[in-house]
Design a protein that fits this description.
- It is a single chain.
- This protein is an all-beta fold and 122 residues long.
- It has no helices and 11 strands.
- The strands form 2 sheets. Strands 2, 4, 5, 6, 9, 10 and 11 form a 7-stranded mixed sheet that branches. A 4-stranded antiparallel sheet has the order 1-3-8-7, with no helix packed on it.
- β5 and β6 form a beta hairpin.
- It starts with a strand and ends with a strand.
Amino acid sequence: QLQLVESGGGLVQPGGSLRLSCAASGFTLDYYAISWFRQAPGKEREWVSCISSSGGITQYADSVKGRFTISRDNAKNTVYLQMNSLTPEDTAVYHCAARMSRRCTPGEYNYWGQGTQVTVSS
């Protein structure tokens, strides 16, 4: 079965950190650019970050720049999102998505994960 599975979400206090993982099964991520998206209740889905297939290029939304770091380990077929200095505004369901492209360019995504909940609250 071809799928992406996110993990690592949870409840964290403001100022805390979490690391999300996006693991692929049934296919290799080597040829895919990977993005993270998030969707908070009552809000539209928001693009968060992207990493190119080689890992050499990363992009971030202004809202997370300087706090979040995206990385990948192609040997483990996994992409990570390190989230630091979390605020309540980061509360959302986080999804990863894979697009068969070397770079983070606009286009349709081939695979989506089911999402992992991140809640930032004291």
